Amino acid sequence: MSLVARHLEANGIPTVVIGTARDIVEHCGVPRFLFVDFPLGSPCGTPFDAEMQRDIVERGLSLFDSATEPGTTSELALTWPNGEGWKETIFTPEQPFLSEEAVKNWEVRKQRYREQQVGSS
Questions:
Q1: What's the rounded Cα separation, in Å, for the pair 76 and 69?
Q2: Do 74 and 34 form a contact (C-beta atoms < 8 A)?
């Protein structure tokens, strides 16, 4: 979504990204970003909470007026209604993103790709 926003902006269509993965979205360099510290996939709040969703979308739209420079990030001071326990299940030693074997396989594939890129230059 972040790359789509950049493409649209480059073609004259203003955008606001409402998202949860702050490091990824900011790394992609979106022009206007509303960060919501909620679980991945839930940037506009809990399902069926129309009031919360409307509030978040309205705050996102307000960035069109308040963002004064490219790369503006605004953070909402909201907490996930069901508690912060969801944070403990993401990328912890008990539940890593990838197993040790999967990381090794990924590193081998990454190195192979780099070698192919050098060979095709």
A1: 19
A2: yes
